[in-house]
TrEMBL record:
This is Uncharacterized protein.
Length: 186
């Protein structure tokens, strides 16, 4: 047997090459058959039932952790967006409207021609002004206390907005029935 083995090893390289090629060809045929069996048996997908319990549990834990991380990230982004919106709204609300209240004394000169006016300076141009007699007197015989309103770009015959305050006219806003109260919205 040792001589046969030695003879076998001493055989020509061509025989050895043919033997190795034969083994490789057989391995390729076997691989193709096994691949066909796997495709026929399982298709192209591997589902959970094919995995061991330990591997399935590990994959489930990783999927759960990934979902929790995604949710935590989404919550952080959502909380930040909400905080940013609240801050912006608080800033806008604070700037929305300032209210200034005050009074002015009447200064009617007895002229019913409605040419007499009085300018009340506030130091800013209001968006709206509401004026009324402060003592609830019967202004000009109307039987009720009247309030007059002026809004930006819409003056009334009794009160109008100026760049630094407002201007009142007509005897009912300038009479001795004053003082008159106003509310100015900035």
């Amino acid at each position: 047997p040792a001589n046969e083995l030695k003879a076998r090893f001493d055989s020509s390289p061509e025989e050895l090459r043919q033997a190795v090629n034969g083994i490789c060809d057989e391995a390729s045929r076997l691989e193709a058959r096994v691949e066909g069996i796997v495709v026929d048996t399982f298709g192209d997908t591997i589902d959970r039932e094919m995995l061991s319990e330990e591997l399935a549990a590990e994959l489930d834990a990783k999927a759960t952790q990934a979902a929790l991380s995604d949710e935590a990230g989404a919550r952080v982004q959502s909380d930040k967006a909400l905080a940013d919106r609240l801050t912006a709204n608080e800033t806008l609300t604070a700037q929305k409207c300032e209210i200034y209240c005050g009074s002015y004394a009447g200064s009617w000169d007895g002229d019913y021609s409605h040419s007499n006016t009085k300018t009340v300076s506030l130091g800013f141009q209001p968006k709206a002004v509401i004026i009324s007699s402060s003592n609830a007197s019967n202004i000009a015989g109307y039987g009720a206390t009247l309030a007059h309103i002026a809004v930006e770009d819409a003056a009334s015959p009794y009160v109008s907005i100026t760049s630094t305050g407002f201007q009142v006219s007509r005897y009912m806003n300038l009479s001795a029935n004053g003082p008159f109260r106003y509310v100015a919205l900035k």
